[in-house]
């Protein structure tokens, strides 16, 4: 089955406004290695997803802080059901599931965070079969720095900065892209500083280690930080509070330059009618320049900087060299520039064009704006209501806070339009602009969740020889070689999967058709053993055919057997096992040419002993064959074998009692096979006939005809050569 080669991963992004399910799929590294090109070997695993594999529900997990017992059935279950509708049922047990909460949960008290994560993990373990071996690893509130690092991985993975560094040279040996993210409660930045800054601030960087398909490590030194409370929703709350303080006790109507002219809302942002309320309200004035001025103080640029240089809120950030550090912005950076203010197509961002559009929109009367919104589009109404504040906040964060040059405004900076083919620009020559808002690349949403899953998939790749001391993950940049003390591992394992009945670990599909084992040399050895066993079987078969090729030889052997059997016409053994009698005794006589003792043969004649041979029907054998063997063409897969090596290659050519299912063994002379068990019954029937024939007639061959006509005897494949005419 083609589906056996795929690995799956599920991750739940538990944000402040809702929880979004993401499902990713990638080819198992051991399968990908089979036909990998040299370029593939130097690349990371190729992950894919589809739009229909995602689902978002509202509100966020953090809203269940006071009723944690409801988070499972009321919130998570619908996402779980959607995941199960996508992932094949036989893959669920081997699919990791992660729930990682971000800024919304970070704002909760620690006791509520702990209670929620514990309940979420317990619910997933009780009600799903997903792989979730470690609650602390799979269900957690991640730091903003970690979220930013995952976003940095996702961005460079999709843009090609990892796999094709030669095509993304930005100068000074730099080939990676910076990452900017802004949500409702926080904002993140992650980038690799230039060489000078990296050496100067080495202890501020994170050591990130990935692994390419050939098993070799890739290391990067990345700076990442977060600004909690600087997402658009939290910033808006701080802004409104400042307005209250500014106009305290002077009026119930607070003029708000960040709202379109004439729009009236509550302090919480709900649209109201002036005639129906006397509560304090915000009244839009539509003065965007004033909006920029009033949002600027929220950056905290006046906060003391204890470790220079600093950007926002007094937090240290190494100096950004925009000649080589080209940033992409996701989430609000995309929605705020391409939502209400977006032009036709995928417009490149430049400050002059964007600010002109924002001013034109925000200066319009609210009634005019509202009339242009289709009826029933409450979501679009909300976007239009918030657009002016978000635009002002984004401009201040980008250009006043982070320092992104204002392309299209300052002289001496090139204005390059990459709007027609942002993908080609990114993959072939890199972005020419210092900042580019993006949403999707190659049809895949740029989300930090992708970075987490890239890290997990890379951890499934077996390390090349001698490279197992370089695990996949990230930690402090405190060591040159090896693993930092605070290293966070990818959470995946490259150990091969082995089957123990129905129990498996979570690394490889052992039921697939051609899995290798711990290393390539084991695979070669298994193939060698399989080939040797096959040739041994052929040689044995040829020997039997040669030995019984002539009728006179068969008859001589047959006569000798008859003479041996005739010497013990009345042997009555005890109630011992029949395992040493029957055809095993007959086979011994055929090959040794001498009589040993005969009780083994006479035990088969005992009434009631015949049922001790386990006779299986044809349908039983077909069922067993289907259970024990896969559709492998090279015979490497067998669930009972443990290591997955073919029984054909490991056996000597004669089946053991638990290995009766191999069709190659059915033609062999074996006391335990079902066909030969039937042969044992034939011997008993013939012997009874002989008991009634006098010795002198038996010597003359009397009674042979009845044996030849016995339909039971003809069913034995081991006896048919003897009776060939």
Overall description:
It holds the Pfam family GDA1_CD39. This is Golgi apyrase. Keywords: Hydrolase, Membrane, Transmembrane, Transmembrane helix. It comes from Humicola insolens (Soft-rot fungus). Residues 612-641, 702-725 are annotated as: Disordered. With 725 residues, the protein is of the alpha+beta class. It has three domains: 1-142 and 447-466 and 487-500, Nucleotidyltransferase, domain 5; 143-444, 2-Layer Sandwich (Nucleotidyltransferase, domain 5), CATH 3.30.420.150; 520-723, no CATH class. The strands form five sheets. Strands 15-14-7-8-10-9-18-19 form an eight-stranded mixed beta sheet. Strands 1, 2, 3, 4, 5 and 6 form a six-stranded mixed beta sheet that branches. A hairpin with a 5-residue loop joins strand 9 and strand 10 (217-228). The protein is elongated and about 125 Å long. The two termini are 47 Å apart.
Q: Using DSSP, what is the number of strands?
A: 21
Number of helices: 26
Mean pLDDT: 74
Strand content: 5-15%
Rg from alpha-carbon coordinates: 38 Å
- Cα shape: elongated
* SSE-based structural type: alpha+beta
Into how many domains do the coordinates divide?
3
Second rung of CATH, namely the architecture of the largest domain: 2-Layer Sandwich
Q: What name goes with the CATH superfamily of the largest domain? A: Exopolyphosphatase. Domain 2
Strand order of the largest sheet: 15-14-7-8-10-9-18-19
From the 3D structure, determine the CATH topology of the largest domain: Nucleotidyltransferase, domain 5
CATH class membership of the largest domain: Alpha Beta
Largest beta sheet, briefly? 8 strands, mixed
Low-confidence stretches: 409-430, 496-529, 570-725
**Percent helix:** 25-40%
Q: Give the terminus-to-terminus CA distance.
A: 47 Å
